[in-house]
């Protein structure tokens, strides 16, 4: 789970999708403890990743791209999405 922006909006995404599609997320997620693989254990819930400097709408656009390889942008967030795509090393998103 990610907590995004000053609004502290919760955003859920699959770790495997993020790690497969983005080297930056792979590094971020590999540093976080995964917990036990045994479903019968009562492993503590994972701590959320706090991304306070990203607007939720921008982060959701990045997540949409990682899941679908396409993204719907408006002029309000286009520059911020470009900035995030450079920060996360998403060259294909930079081309959009």
UniProtKB/TrEMBL annotation:
SMART domains: BTB (SM00225). It holds the Pfam family BTB. Residues 1-75 form the BTB domain. InterPro entries: BTB/POZ_dom, BTBD19, SKP1/BTB/POZ_sf. PANTHER family: BTB/POZ DOMAIN-CONTAINING PROTEIN 19, BTB_POZ DOMAIN-CONTAINING PROTEIN 19. This is BTBDJ protein. The lineage of its organism: Eukaryota, Metazoa, Chordata, Craniata, Vertebrata.
């Amino acid at each position: 789970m990610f907590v995004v922006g000053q609004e502290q909006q919760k955003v859920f995404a699959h770790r495997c999708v993020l790690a497969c599609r983005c080297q930056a997320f792979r590094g971020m997620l590999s540093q976080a403890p995964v917990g036990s693989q045994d479903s019968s254990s009562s492993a503590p819930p994972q701590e959320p990743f706090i991304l306070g400097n990203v607007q939720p709408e921008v982060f959701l656009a990045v997540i949409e791209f990682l899941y679908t390889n396409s993204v719907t942008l408006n002029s309000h967030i286009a520059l911020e999405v470009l900035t995030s795509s450079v920060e996360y090393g998403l060259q294909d998103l930079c081309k959009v």
